[in-house]
Amino acid sequence: MIDARQLTKKYGEKTAVDGLDFVVQPGTVTGFLGPNGAGKSTTMRMIVGLDAPTSGSVTVNGHRYARHQAPLQEVGALLEAKSIHPGRSAYNHLRALALTHGIPGRRVDEVIDLAGLGSVAKKRAGAFSLGMGQRLGIAAALLGDPQTVMLDEPVNGLDPEGVLWIRNLLKTLAVEGRTVFVSSHLMSEMALVADHLIIVGRGRLLADTTVADLIREAGGDTVNVATQDPARLRDVLAGPGVEVTGRIGSEELQVTGLTTREIGLKAAEHGIALFGLSARTVSLEEAFMDLTRDAVEYHGSTPGIETLGRPA
Ligand SMILES: Nc1ncnc2c1ncn2[C@@H]1O[C@H](COP(=O)(O)OP(=O)(O)OP(=O)(O)O)[C@@H](O)[C@H]1O
Questions:
Q1: I want to staple 262 with a disulfide (CB 3.0 to 4.6 A). Which of 79, 187, 252, 258 is the partner?
Q2: Residues 198-220: pLDDT tens digits?
Q3: Closest among 2, 8, 52 to 202, alpha carbons compared
Q4: Domain boundaries, the chain
């Protein structure tokens, strides 16, 4: 479990992380999301003691990282690309890391296999592609078989096969009961792997929610339905957890709490003809942009093109 309390980091005048309170639970993948410059990397650096908080605190399993007796066995982290001696092989790099942390040598072979580095493990790391380097960083993070795994933008530089590998790996680590904390600025990627989301903007907490709730709050579970007799359909659909709205005089209704299939079947049961039935699709990317709109540090601009089809 990772527990941040009023976690704050200032660099001179700049407040990179601003009073963050959150808990990352074991057994699920938690996505750490926010636009560029939101403070994700700074937060992760503080979790593993690479940066000291200006105020507040963050602990892993109840202790500050520096207080752990065998930190590599407690938290495995992939932060910005590690500098590895270019002449050293992946195998020797991991072996040296294992030796200095009291990790048995056979674990090096295990993580090399796990990261799919078997065929290149004895080659110079200097000749590695970005994706291979990323896999090596993940192998190093898992070397101590840690209970908590924290990865900063792990899919960076990976090809589609690598991206799929990361998704499966993260899910497996969570199923094993580990705490898995993964940052990204890509909502679409997080939607595929994360169950829980911590969203930040300008160093502040914007949301601590599940993927399902985020979609619901953005109106993503609304169904539009059209019929000649909306009043009757409204009565037929009424029930616990169901909300039906619609403008007076309009044949269209907006329904939450029922799927298109359930609405279609109920209407058929009562002989009500429908001439429109569609789920409103709100992309997670759109929900994320809405949430972080005011928290984006670096706005790009493309003259003549509106952001996500909305008025600028
Ligand atoms: N060492 C530093 N000195 C001064 N400012 C810093 C330092 N490190 C980070 N910052 C600033 O703090 C803010 C948060 O940066 P951080 O790298 O944590 O964000 P991020 O969410 O990880 O962004 P990205 O998605 O671009 O990696 C930024 O405005 C950044 O410029």
A1: 258
A2: 999 999 999 999 987 887 777 66
A3: 8
A4: 2-210, 221-279
Both tokens assigned to 39: 């403070």
**Through-space distance between the first and last CA atoms of the chain, rounded to whole angstroms:** 40
| Ligand 1 interacting residues, C-beta cut-off 6 A | 11, 14, 16, 34, 36-42, 185
**Model confidence at 81, in pLDDT bands (50, 70, 90)?**
low
Q: What is the DSSP letter of 173?
A: H
Structure token pair of residue 211: 């993927």
pTM: 0.81
Which CATH architecture fits 2-210? 3-Layer(aba) Sandwich (3.40)
Residues 22, 26, 29, 31: what is their CA dihedral angle, to the nearest 10 degrees? 10
Task: Assess contact for 309 and 275: CB atoms under 8 A.
Answer: no
| Choice from 7, 9, 13, 14 to test ligand 1 binding pocket (greatest atom count within 8 A of CB) | 14
Was domain 221-279 assigned CATH 3.30.70? yes
CA–centroid distance, 37 to ligand 1, in Å, is: 5
ipTM above 0.90, yes or no: yes
